[in-house]
Design a protein that fits this description.
The protein is of the alpha+beta class and 76 residues long. The protein is 34% helix and 13% strand. It has a domain at 48-76. The chain is built from three helices and two strands; from the N terminus they run ααβαβ. The protein starts with 11 loop residues before the first helix and ends with a strand.
C-alpha cells in the first residue's frame, strides 16, 4: 500500500489565511461577464440563486444585488 501523495498546494483554508483574497487568480469583484450575458439573454431579473463553492463571495454578492435575488452561498 502506498501513501497518498500530498496536494500540490495548501488547503483552501490555509490559502485564504496566507494570501489576500484580492490577489487570488479567481478574484473578480464584478458579476462575471458570461453570467451577466446569460441572465440578460434569458431575461432573468429577479429570483433565487444558489452559489456553491463561492470562494470570496464576490459573485454571490453581485448576483444578489443585480437581481434583487434571494441567495444562498456556501464555500465548503
Amino acid at each position: 500500500m502506498t501513501a497518498d501523495p500530498q496536494p500540490p498546494f495548501p488547503s483552501w483554508d490555509e490559502r485564504y489565511q496566507q494570501q489576500a483574497v484580492e490577489t487570488m487568480p479567481w478574484f473578480y469583484p464584478e458579476l462575471d461577464d458570461d453570467l451577466k450575458q446569460a441572465l440578460d439573454e434569458l431575461k432573468v431579473h429577479e429570483g433565487r440563486a444558489l452559489d456553491l463553492g463561492t470562494g470570496p463571495g464576490t459573485q454571490a454578492i453581485q448576483l444578489a444585488q443585480s437581481l434583487r435575488a434571494e441567495l444562498i452561498a456556501g464555500g465548503r
